[in-house]
From TrEMBL:
Gene Ontology molecular-function annotations: S-adenosylmethionine-dependent methyltransferase activity
Protein name as catalogued: Nicotinamide n-methyltransferase
GO CC terms of this entry: cytoplasm
Biological process terms in GO annotation: methylation
Lineage, highest ranks first: Eukaryota, Fungi, Dikarya, Basidiomycota, Pucciniomycotina
Keyword line: Methyltransferase, Transferase
Organism: Rhodotorula toruloides (strain NP11)
Methyltransferase in keyword set: yes
InterPro entries on file: Methyltransf_16 (IPR019410), SAM-dependent_MTases_sf (IPR029063)
Pfam families: Methyltransf_16
């Protein structure tokens, strides 16, 4: 039995990764440049196991960092993967280096790294990938001040590809309230869950529980656990364009 192997800095986590691997497959992802967060690992797991089918599809990852989900998407047969992060040469160089280290030259031809600052024109992203099938978002909502800008970018892309689905994962390392606030703003802006029942939290030991959507209500009150406990959980679900944006 092979496993998903990740090299990371354990002092950055108070508990182990939720990745458990898949018999018959092996993904080695190693980087000394930055951290790989649990939400990226969880989302990459879903791609690697086929729970999210990316074969032959066009993928955009926003706020990709070291782009573990996007890289796994390329490994799993995506037709095209566009990796985007803050339009900074150093950050984009880190992403490009991760792609070069993780993928064969043949697979690298399917991947493009594009700078995109949330809330600005998505023109360069759409030029690289005119009609995406999936958008990947992993651990991008910890900074509340950037929620509006991220939603603007999501809406701008989705309006050009209304059938596109956003696969969303987020940890609670800055609190459940930050995630709930993002989803509250998303709902008000015209993004809605594809299926509320599929939104689940998963612990590093494999436990699951449904996301409490009342936390994203207009008066949702979030009771925060201790830091160590909330670091153990990651949320996953899908969003799609449902209503006319109010932005």
């Amino acid at each position: 039995m092979t496993t998903t192997t990740l090299e990371y800095h354990p002092e950055n986590h108070l508990s182990a990764s939720p990745a458990h691997g898949l018999p018959g497959t092996n993904f080695l992802y190693s980087s000394p440049l930055s951290y790989v967060w649990s939400s990226a690992i969880l989302l990459a797991d879903r791609l690697a196991t086929g729970e999210v089918d990316v074969k032959g599809k066009r993928i955009v990852e926003l706020g990709c960092g070291l782009a573990l989900p996007g890289i796994v998407a390329a490994q799993m047969g995506a037709e095209q993967v566009v990796l985007t992060d803050y339009d900074n040469p150093t950050m984009l160089a880190d992403t490009s280096q991760a792609v070069q280290q993780a993928l064969s030259p043949q697979l690298q031809q399917r991947v493009q790294v594009v700078g995109h600052t949330w809330g600005t024109s998505v023109g360069p992203v759409l030029e690289a990938c005119p009609s995406p099938d999936l958008i990947l978002v992993a651990d991008c909502v910890w900074e509340r001040e950037l929620h509006r800008a991220l939603i603007q970018s999501l809406l701008a892309i989705l309006r050009t590809a209304p059938s596109c689905v956003v696969h969303f994962a987020a940890g609670f390392h800055t609190g459940r309230s930050a995630v709930a606030a993002f989803l509250r703003h998303a709902l008000a802006s015209g993004l809605a869950p594809v299926d509320m029942a599929e939104w689940q939290e998963k612990s590093v030991t494999g436990q699951t529980k449904r996301w409490d959507w009342t936390l994203s209500g207009s008066k949702g009150l979030v009771k925060e656990e201790r830091q160590e406990e909330r670091n153990r959980w990651t949320l996953y679900g899908t969003l799609a364009l449902q209503l006319e944006s109010k932005l």
